[in-house]
Amino acid sequence: MDIVYLVKNSRTNDELTYSLRTLVNVPHDKVFLVGGCPENIKKDTIIHIPVLQTGNKYQNTLKNLELICRDPRLSEEFILFNDDFFLLLKTTDNPRAEFNLCRGFIKDVYDEYSALYGNDGNYYLQAMRQTMIFLQDLGIKEPLSYELHIPLVMDKNKVLRAFSLPGIHTIGAGHIRSIYGNLFLEGSRVVADCKIRRRTERIPTNSKFLSSADSTWEYIKPFIQSKFPEKSEYEV
After folding, report:
1. Short-list 27, 150, 22, CA closest to 82
2. Assessment of whether the complete model's pTM goes beyond 0.85
3. pLDDT for residue 198
């Protein structure tokens, strides 16, 4: 099973470097970087698919995902990573089941985010609500949110089926993980998100998953360094 990273264009990407180190914890085949490729990555150890990033980060993510799913070199099932996902503990040989996780109902996540950040003009929250309505119109009465900062196993043909649905490209940020999960996953276990958003949050030492925000990477970096001090096979 291959691994796919959807990567912004940049010369350096510290989070990606350490995320790649954590891949020792999951059985995998090829590694694809779609979008950018930092200078410290060994180009002969990964497959880089350069994509001009012309939209916002949500639009770029969708374009990159659709593009890689049309690539015949990609395994039919693959594990989707972001550059700020860190896999801290070894997985079993069944990531399909182990990564089948959700956050609960979209309406509850929407209410939680609205209370924390407000929803006046919030692009991400507007798209979350659009996604919920989109799925309800497809007959899913209480859609689940799969917008966790953890890896997700996807089937590339099913992803393309989702992208072919009428109206999907009108959703602002296109919460494709939630659309995919509601359409194609069953028995998803509900868990809390693992993203550290504030430096006041405690870093869990026994969690399988961890994710950083731009503002918290330097806060959690020493912890990740201590667990993965050696370079990966993908680093120069």
Report:
1. 150
2. yes
3. 93
